[in-house]
């Protein structure tokens, strides 16, 4: 491990197979969310930088849970971890069903899906022009 722990260099270290240049993600909320998802074994987490495509948000953080209960556990952990930064969701949708939980943190929106719902809604396809940061599930994440 190097002594360079800047978010930029680490973001490039954890990125793999992106369609475009990985976004330079410096938002602590995004990294805290990724830590939460990784801690609870979220599947295929990605970050889409949508800041240049829309004005309603800067980032989508997307991950998959293996079941409805796992999706709820991932959402619970994201909410718990972001609360340590004193960041609270403006709105949460879909928690009761646990198929697609949307957590609105203003310019960071977290989507946690079951595999079927992630495939059905295909946010990565819909926002394919966004910068995409793919996180390997075992990759060390920067501490911010």
Automatic annotation (TrEMBL):
Its main location: cytoplasm. Residues 1-25 are annotated as: Disordered. Keywords: Cytoplasm, Repressor, Translation regulation. It is found in: Cytoplasm. Residues 1-21 have a biased composition (Polar residues). Transmembrane segments: none annotated. InterPro entries: Iojap/RsfS/C7orf30, NT_sf. Signal peptide: none annotated. Gene3D superfamilies: Beta Polymerase, domain 2. It comes from the Bacteria. Interacts with ribosomal protein uL14 (rplN). PANTHER family: IOJAP SUPERFAMILY ORTHOLOG, MITOCHONDRIAL ASSEMBLY OF RIBOSOMAL LARGE SUBUNIT PROTEIN 1. Functions as a ribosomal silencing factor. Interacts with ribosomal protein uL14 (rplN), blocking formation of intersubunit bridge B8. Prevents association of the 30S and 50S ribosomal subunits and the formation of functional ribosomes, thus repressing translation. NCBIfam families: rsfS_iojap_ybeB. Belongs to the Iojap/RsfS family. This is Ribosomal silencing factor RsfS. It comes from Chloracidobacterium validum. The lineage of its organism: Bacteria, Pseudomonadati, Acidobacteriota, Terriglobia, Terriglobales. The gene is rsfS.
């Amino acid at each position: 491990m190097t002594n360079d722990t800047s978010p930029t260099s680490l973001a490039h270290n954890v990125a793999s197979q992106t369609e475009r240049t990985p976004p330079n993600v410096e938002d602590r909320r995004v990294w805290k969310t990724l830590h939460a998802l990784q801690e609870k074994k979220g599947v295929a987490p990605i970050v889409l930088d949508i800041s240049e495509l829309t004005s309603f948000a800067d980032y989508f953080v997307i991950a998959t849970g293996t079941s409805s209960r796992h999706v709820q556990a991932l959402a619970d952990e994201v909410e718990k971890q972001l609360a340590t930064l004193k960041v609270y969701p403006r709105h949460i949708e879909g928690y009761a069903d646990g198929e697609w939980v949307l957590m609105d943190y203003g310019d960071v929106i977290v989507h946690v899906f079951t595999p079927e719902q992630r495939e059905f809604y295909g946010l990565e396809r819909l926002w394919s022009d966004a910068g995409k940061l793919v996180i390997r599930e075992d990759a060390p994440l920067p501490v911010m």
